[in-house]
Amino acid sequence: MQTRVTLLDGSLFTCTVEKRARGLQLFEKVCEHVNLLERDYFALSFRDADNNKNWLDPAKEMKKQVRGVPWNFSFNVKFYPPDPAQLSEDITRYFLCLQLRQDIVSGRLPCSFATHTVLGSYTVQSELGDYDPDECASDYISELCFAPNQTKEMEEKIMELHKTYRGMSPAEAEMHFLENVKKLSMYGVDLHHAKDSEGVDIMLGVCSSGLLVYRDRLRINRFSWPKILKISYKRNNFYIKIRPGEFDQFESTIGFKLLNHRAAKRLWKVCVEHHSFFRLVSPEEPPKKFLTLGSKFRYSGRTQIQSRRASAQISRPAPHFPRCISKRNMLSRSLDGVFDWSSGSRTTPSLIGSPAITASPKANGGTHTGRACYYRSTAARCSTTAVLLQYCSVIGHSSECFISFSLWRSAAF
């Protein structure tokens, strides 16, 4: 079977796999293609016939998971590391940066104006290198995209900060970017639509620390993994059993209603995987009995502890890799699609024949600003070819703690 995988830099990777191939076989091919060793934080996702986002299970045959749609996948970060500095290789942190930039520009990761300017300035340093007044015009970042609500004032502040980073390497800029972005309240939160026991619309967010509950754009509750005794689902209901509090005698069960049975199961699986990855020393063994009650699903990958141990054993020289540059109003092709704010729905973007642009490295670890200032470049200068998609302008957010419910309504389960 012919498969197509959209990578984080917008390029397409195509390969042929057997019909009975498991998800792990395709995932390993993609990781080898991008030269990634710290693989446990990443996964492949796909859209089903109802346009719902699903994670490809590496332990199951692909044909049993992808039904009725082409075998098109997206390479994404699945588990956002709480401390990116503990990643061993620069290339891993770079891929994490690419994912987070997509999250920010799409509005999935809300930022304040001040945070946008700081993160944008490190993005410019990573992609363009040192500021050079002889080669960069007064609006040299006007074609770069940093935020859904990007303004001229924001760009001026970003340029002001960027000019102070002389001598900072791309890897250092990406580390500063990650150190700032990990503090955002919505960093690494996987959101799911739900209703509470009173039928009020809420959002359930799954992250490294536990389960979060949002209503009216504000977080109203948090259940850490140690506090949760059991997670389960039945039909379209999702349940969590909570340990008794300091003044409680008995355990309590809290229920939420999701759109349908499949949505409840997706949320349950995401919770199982996040709890296993971030909390367990090693993954649980699947039940061996032929007749068992409930789902046999178990997280089958390595846990974060196992991944860190494996990363500590990496001994290869730091790999060299090109860093891509994304134009404003253009977004790398993604299976997530583009959110159309006028219609309130998520649409598949139209293709345009514009290649991705990469910055060539300087000897000192920076980048050649003259080549990177791509507003002067032509397609012939591009060192890689990838299809970019038109990106719709979207509204912004005034504070990290406020989340666009318009975006939430557009998100597919």
Index terms:
413 residues, alpha+beta, Ubiquitin-like (UB roll), Acyl-CoA Binding Protein, PH-domain like, five-stranded mixed β-sheet, four-stranded antiparallel β-sheet, 9 helices, disordered C terminus, cytoplasm
Describe it.
Residues 329-413 have low confidence and may be disordered. The chain folds into 3 domains: 2-79, Ubiquitin-like (UB roll), CATH 3.10.20; 84-182, Acyl-CoA Binding Protein; 190-285 and 296-312, Pleckstrin-homology domain (PH domain)/Phosphotyrosine-binding domain (PTB) (PH-domain like, Roll). The radius of gyration is 22 Å and the shape is globular. Helix 3 (113-128) crosses helix 4 (152-162) and helix 3 packs antiparallel against helix 5. The protein has helices at 23-34, 90-106, 113-128, 152-162, 170-181, 261-279, 304-311, 369-372, 405-410, and strands at 2-6, 12-16, 42-47, 53-55, 72-77, 190-195, 201-207, 210-215, 218-224, 228-234, 237-242, 252-257, 323-325, 330-332, 338-340, 345-347, 351-352, 357-359, 388-390. It is 25% helix and 22% strand. It has a 5-stranded mixed sheet. The longest helix is centred in the middle third of the chain and has 19 residues, at 261-279. Keywords: Actin-binding, Cytoplasm, Cytoskeleton, Phosphoprotein.
